[in-house]
Input
Amino acid sequence: MARSLRRRATAKLVVVANRLPVDQVTLADGSVTWRPSPGGVVSALEPLMRAEAAAWVGWPGVSGEVEIPEDASDLSLVPVAITETEHEEYYEGFANATLWPLYHDLVAKPEFHREWWDAYIDVNQRFAAAAASVAARGATVWVHDYQLQLVPAILREMRPDLRIGFFLHIPFPPAELFSQLPWRRQILEGLLGADLVGFQLPGAAANFIRLVRDRVGHKTQRESVFLPDGRVVTARAFPISIDAAGFEELARTVAIEERAEQIRSDLGNPAKVFLGVDRLDYTKGIYPRLRAFSELIADGSLSVEDAVFVQVATPSRERVEEYRTMRDEINRLVGRVNGDLGRIGRQAISYLHVSLPREEMAALYRAADIMVVTPYRDGMNLVSKEYVACRYDDLGALVLSEFAGAAAELRQAFLVNPYDINGMKAQMLTAYEAKPREQARRMRAMRRTVAEHDVTQWASNFLDALG
Ligand code: F6P
Output
């Protein structure tokens, strides 16, 4: 399917993202196969992609040329090959060791290397060329995220007939931080190739508009940028969300409810279960939250008989140095806390370094009394919304960092500053002690917000504004 689309430029909608929505899996007998990787964005776009002749351009997740069997996905996939060196320089380097920390408040120190930048340009050109080759005349192309910020301008140069949208899933930093980037002007000009540039929050759109005015010198007014050639680019917030109804439906099934009970029983039926679910990333604030929890146990505010912390950390970007360092730090902390504070058969922290399927996540959300989401900086944070969607009984408490994009919508969470350990301890304790009435008052309001603004609405809002 992908091959025929490539030969004939017939796609009326083209999604361009760093990853294709399929994963390569190795079976027990050692053979390799592919399966769809269901994510929120995929499920939101799937109906649209089926309705129109559509294509998804992306990297298959493994280096070099790969064949993706036609039955791997119902969608038309257009794989972009990336070499091992490009994987190091473009993905691990420029995307995840330069842009990622720079866009997340410099939680880690960004590295600037000229050869990484060159690889970023090359790979962005390849993605743009792949999109140009499948897009029908006048098609809509939706480019996603920080790995591909040059694609809009390159693509416009190749195909001025296209309608081009770009959405940034992560934060966009203030001018004071962004200006460190040696290639700041090129990135801004890359994004300006789009007709619509979407951000998670209005503040990020404002940062972009200010930078375009000050660094590129274009005239701007509110959310509009006026280019010398007469084109107008709009920069606006489109807060992303989840398939709220789908999560709730899953959480309501008997199998998930039984699994949730099993989890609690495996944990020794403690009075309360705290839960953290994150990609193992230094922006997520896993360390300070586990520290806060362990101090609550150590100072007697909580006891291991009454409370356990389940932390699921999904492996991520494991060859990037900062990620390895953080993984070691967390391993050491968990070992120390359990050694010092645990009892036989009762660990203070139950730590899992795994990637879990959606069903197991839903069961964990159902099992958890207190969900703890404490990023130092996060574009949105979908885990917090998934937890809320699964709490159809209106019970449970969400402790949420004020630096997560989701905090702008989930105002009734127990909001915390992850840099303030004492403040976090106090809020975790308040959440622990919250009476069912108080939990329900907060949860009902948050559930309404998440139900009203789901991922399908997010996608159609963006595409309507682009159209
Ligand atoms: O949050 C940004 C993001 O790129 C997500 O879109 C994605 O799910 C996640 O990070 C995982 O990143 P990677 O593709 O590097 O594994």
User: Anything to note?
Assistant: The first helix runs from residue 2 to 7. DSSP finds 17 helices and 17 strands in the chain.
